[in-house]
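Section 5: illustrative case.
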């Protein structure tokens, strides 16, 4: 029986090709994801371990802690005195103190080199032979003076800098010029991620990032023969136990490897979800293929039964065919996945990220996963057709009787589908009523069961939906249109399985599109209706807060009309931390369109508090109420509520206070942004005034309202494009399913097509009939997918409405129209080969076909 199965596979290579392609795509995505993440994990872990070579013990300071009254206690870092104590230990060969933070380097045009979030500055610490082991210099040497810096080789190359040149460097304050003392190479993760690294003299770095005489980290090197664990035991008593952590270099490298594994695991999970979607869609194609193959071979299978094969043997022969197809598909998918991993690595490199070197990691688990998934998916999809094969009665099959689903089985299927459908809608509506995160989880479960219910009910839905468009097809296309509509519902199960793959893909695409466009519109309205400022000044990449000197510099610059810094802070209400925005009362109204519902913003200038409307409702606050708070420094106060305003999430915190009051209780304020208005209004010249006033600081971004819209819109569009690309694979498999269905349908109807040709249907109209059949099936699946996608987008959007002010569902009719048009195009393209085959059939030969 196995030889018979193998012969059947070889005899039906063309028909099984689509199945092989579907499984191959899914397996390739799974194996490619596993190979890529395993390779990246090994490379990053190796890089992490390499960066701690020679480090016996590492000590990290977490800064000062706070007591119950909010007062800071402990030292800001590891003091020089502690470093000297560690250095004096017998087994210690060297100790280097480290401090680091943000530093941006500008090119000749003043533009920031690197990614913003991965631009770092650190101190250069010679520990042996006047060298720092973390850096290898290719030009010059490390900085030895306060006005010197060193740059990594990539940054120096990008800026065209050579030793001796003046380099413009900025942290969060005014830009400064330094002399370039040297250029180095490093394994630092910031540089490998496409950022930059600036090395300062230690005293300069301490002044910039911490406090003179203090370090954030200590790297301890051991003398030959000294044990890292023994050194660790000797170092711990010298440290401030509450605010510092000491561990061996090996333990730290291992800890970082776990963090890398965790981060990559999240990315891998997302990619595997889309691979799972593709494989899920592929199941329908495989099921359809084997169902049609079995139906076409009923006479052959009956002969096997007649010569002595029992039901189990016939069933196992079909499963053996599926096994062969699964193994071949999995092997091709594994090889394709390895190529995909190489492609992903190259693609990331093209965006400027420098991934660590190293060969591909093809773990045994990846090979096993590829084979198991490929074989399992194919076998599971073939089980039902194989089971039906075993039920064929030899005598009935000898007469070439097909295996149509009985009325009873379709009735049972429709009842089960209806129950699942009703329950799924109920789950979705329950999730809508719950709102927020818990509600979205319930909606997700409801969406899953809704897709299952749709798949089960598709045979029932196909007849009335396609019957509704039959008159239009007949009127526009004549006889070919009428025949196409009839053929599309001749076998409801087959039509349902073919349309299901398109419906699933377009459900996901439509849901993401509607949500993405809606959220984008909310962001756009927020920036156009709520934001009045000409420009927003912030750190590049939003990697930190602005120095207070930024607002002071802008306030005194010519051509600047108004300046309003916004600080982010917090105070405690009861036992809960509450975020608060510190603003300038005199100018905030010129920058933001704050819709006051009660009281007046003028009360901010009197030291009173403004509260967002929803927060006020939860806290039972009204204008005139007093809110008891505890500030960052532990001081307590009663703040009178002077105004209530409509929520402005993303622009203002739920509580707003005069920045002077907030600053009195904060040792160092975090100024997130500074809003600016210029004389004459926003223009290219006005933007340049702001840039010039800040000394063309490369670390600071001056964004227009359009820039802010593009920033958020760009993120949403990028996310949607990634999703479209990933879901495109599922749609490709859907196309293969349509091709497969039509090809086998043409084969089954060979005699019928010959008769149609004989009574006058020419080749052109035969082609039109097949094309229209494909378009009808494709649009049937697409319309269902779009309808369910819109419903799910509404449901998920309802849970976002509470968190996003002015949320209103937007239906992107243009994109929905494009989706439906693409579905029709898919049908036309998928029908090209089957239609051509049907039109080329010889009439006499076709009529004689059994």
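Designed sequence:
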């Amino acid at each position: 029986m196995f030889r018979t199965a193998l012969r059947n596979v070889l005899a039906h290579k063309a028909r099984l090709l689509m199945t092989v392609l579907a499984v191959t795509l899914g397996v390739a995505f799974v194996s490619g994801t596993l190979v890529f993440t395993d390779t990246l994990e090994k490379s990053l872990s190796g890089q992490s371990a390499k960066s701690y070579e020679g480090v016996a013990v590492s000590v990290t300071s977490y800064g000062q802690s706070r007591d119950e009254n909010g007062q800071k206690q402990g030292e800001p870092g590891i003091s020089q005195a502690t470093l000297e104590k560690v250095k004096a230990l017998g087994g210690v060969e060297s100790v280097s103190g480290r401090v680091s933070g943000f530093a941006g380097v500008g090119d000749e045009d003043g533009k920031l080199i690197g990614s913003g979030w991965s631009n770092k500055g650190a101190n250069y610490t010679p520990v042996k032979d006047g060298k720092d082991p973390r850096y290898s210099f290719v030009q010059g040497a490390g900085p030895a003076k306060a006005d010197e810096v060193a740059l990594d080789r990539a940054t120096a190359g990008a800026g065209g800098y050579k030793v001796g040149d003046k380099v413009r460097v900025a942290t969060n304050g005014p830009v400064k010029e330094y002399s370039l003392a040297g250029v180095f190479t490093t394994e630092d993760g910031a540089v490998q991620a496409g950022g930059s690294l600036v090395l300062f003299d230690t005293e300069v770095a301490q002044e910039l990032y911490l406090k003179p005489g203090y370090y954030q980290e200590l790297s301890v090197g051991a003398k030959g023969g000294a044990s890292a664990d023994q050194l660790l035991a000797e170092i711990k008593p010298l440290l401030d136990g509450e605010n510092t952590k000491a561990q061996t270099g090996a333990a730290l490298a291992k800890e970082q490897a776990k963090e890398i594994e965790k981060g990559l695991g999240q990315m891998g999970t997302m990619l595997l979800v889309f691979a799972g979607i593709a494989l899920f869609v592929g199941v329908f194609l495989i099921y359809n293929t084997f169902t049609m193959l079995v139906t076409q071979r009923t006479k052959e299978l009956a002969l096997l039964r007649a010569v002595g094969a029992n039901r189990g043997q016939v069933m196992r022969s079909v499963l053996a065919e599926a096994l062969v197809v699964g193994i071949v598909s999995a092997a091709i998918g594994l090889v394709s996945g390895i190529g995909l991993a190489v492609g992903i690595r190259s693609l990331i490199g093209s965006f400027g990220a420098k991934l660590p070197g190293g060969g591909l990691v093809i773990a045994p688990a990846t090979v096993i996963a590829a084979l198991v998934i490929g074989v399992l998916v194919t076998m599971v999809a073939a089980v039902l057709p194989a089971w039906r094969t075993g039920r064929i009665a030899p005598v009935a099959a000898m007469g070439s009787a097909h295996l149509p689903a009985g009325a009873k089985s379709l009735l049972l299927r429709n009842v089960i589908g209806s129950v699942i459908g009703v329950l799924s809608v109920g789950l979705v509506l329950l999730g809508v009523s719950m709102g927020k995160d818990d509600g979205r989880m319930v909606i997700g479960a409801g969406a899953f069961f809704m897709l299952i219910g749709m798949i089960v009910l598709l045979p029932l839905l196909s007849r009335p939906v396609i019957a509704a468009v039959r008159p239009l097809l007949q009127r526009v296309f004549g006889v070919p249109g009428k025949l196409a509509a009839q053929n599309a519902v001749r076998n409801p199960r087959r039509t349902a399985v073919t349309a299901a793959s398109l419906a699933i893909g377009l459900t996901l695409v439509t849901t993401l599109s509607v949500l993405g466009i809606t959220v984008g519109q909310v962001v756009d309205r927020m920036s156009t209706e709520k934001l009045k400022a000409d420009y927003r000044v912030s750190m590049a990449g939003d990697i930190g807060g602005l120095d207070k000197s930024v607002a002071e510099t802008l306030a005194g610059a010519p051509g600047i009309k108004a300046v309003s810094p916004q600080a982010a802070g917090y105070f405690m209400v009861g036992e809960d931390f509450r975020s608060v925005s510190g603003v300038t009362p005199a100018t905030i109204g010129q920058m933001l369109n704050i819709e006051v519902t009660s009281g007046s913003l003028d009360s901010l200038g009197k030291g009173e508090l403004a509260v967002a409307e929803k927060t006020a409702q939860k806290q039972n606050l009204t204008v005139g109420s007093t809110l008891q708070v505890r500030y960052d420094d532990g001081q307590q106060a009663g703040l009178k509520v002077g105004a209530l305003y409509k929520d402005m999430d993303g622009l203002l915190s739920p509580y707003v206070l005069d920045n002077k009051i907030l600053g009195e209780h904060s040792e160092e304020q975090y100024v997130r942004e500074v809003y600016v208005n210029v004389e004459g209004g926003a223009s290219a010249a006005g933007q340049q005034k702001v840039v010039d006033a800040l000394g063309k600081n490369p670390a600071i971004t001056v964004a227009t309202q359009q820039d802010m819209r593009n920033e958020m819109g760009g993120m949403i569009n990028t996310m949607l494009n990634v999703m479209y690309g990933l879901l495109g694979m599922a749609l490709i498999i859907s196309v293969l399913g349509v091709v497969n269905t039509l090809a086998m349908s043409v084969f089954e109807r060979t005699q019928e097509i010959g008769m149609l040709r004989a009574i006058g249907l020419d080749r052109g109209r035969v082609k039109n009939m097949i094309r229209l059949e494909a378009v009808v099936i494709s649009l049937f699946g697409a319309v269902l997918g779009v309808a369910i996608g819109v419903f799910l987008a509404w449901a998920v959007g309802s849970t976002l409405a509470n968190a996003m002010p002015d949320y209103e569902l937007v239906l992107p009719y243009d994109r929905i129209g494009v989706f439906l048009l693409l579905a029709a195009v898919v049908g036309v393209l998928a029908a090209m080969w089957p239609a051509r085959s049907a039109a080329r059939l010889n009439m006499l030969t076709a009529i004689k076909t059994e």
